[in-house]
Amino acid sequence: MTNQPSAMVEIYQKPLTCLLIYSELCPNLSAVMPSQLESAMESLIMVFHRYSDKDGKRNTLSKKELKQLMETELASFLKSQKDPATIDKIMKDLDQNGDGEVSFEEFVSLVVGLSIACEEIYQLQSKTPSKK
Ligand SMILES: [Ca+2]
Ligand SMILES: [Ca+2]
């Protein structure tokens, strides 16, 4: 019994399943004002599919689709990277199962990684006493 993963762990590992469960629990979800976090989750899914739907493989990003996504949605991050091979490197990093495509799960790890980096900067800035 103690070996059973907690429900939270399972949900964490399957964020999409979590959303599906959630929408089943709340059939009127679209009628309910989503919270900030729920909107952020929805945005992630919408942004991913805005680019992943462009070719035959609708549930994954090809390198071309990833490039378009990053150039449009993460332009300032991309500009800060001077290496022209950045997209190739990111693609290689993200594609954990090596199928040459970036799934939503793989894409989310990029967003999480960037969010963690941003949060660290936020922490540093809030630690530094503001000079007056
Ligand atoms: Ca695609
Ligand atoms: Ca992949």
What's a quick, concise take on this entry?
It is built from seven helices and two strands. By secondary structure, the protein is mainly alpha-helical. It has a two-stranded antiparallel sheet.
Structural features, described:
With 132 residues, the protein is mostly helical. It has one domain (33-127): Recoverin, domain 1, CATH 1.10.238.10. 64% of the residues lie in helices and 3% in strands. The protein is built from 7 helices and 2 strands; from the N terminus they run H-H-H-E-H-H-H-E-H. It has helices spanning 7-13, 15-25, 36-52, 63-73, 75-80, 86-94, 104-127, and strands spanning 60-61, 102-103. A two-stranded antiparallel sheet has the order 1-2. Helix 3 crosses helix 4 (63-73). The longest helix has 24 residues, at 104-127. The protein is globular and about 55 Å long. 11% of the residues are buried. This is Protein S100. It comes from Esox lucius (Northern pike). It holds the Pfam family S_100. GO terms for molecular function: calcium ion binding; calcium-dependent protein binding. Residues 82-117 form the EF-hand domain.
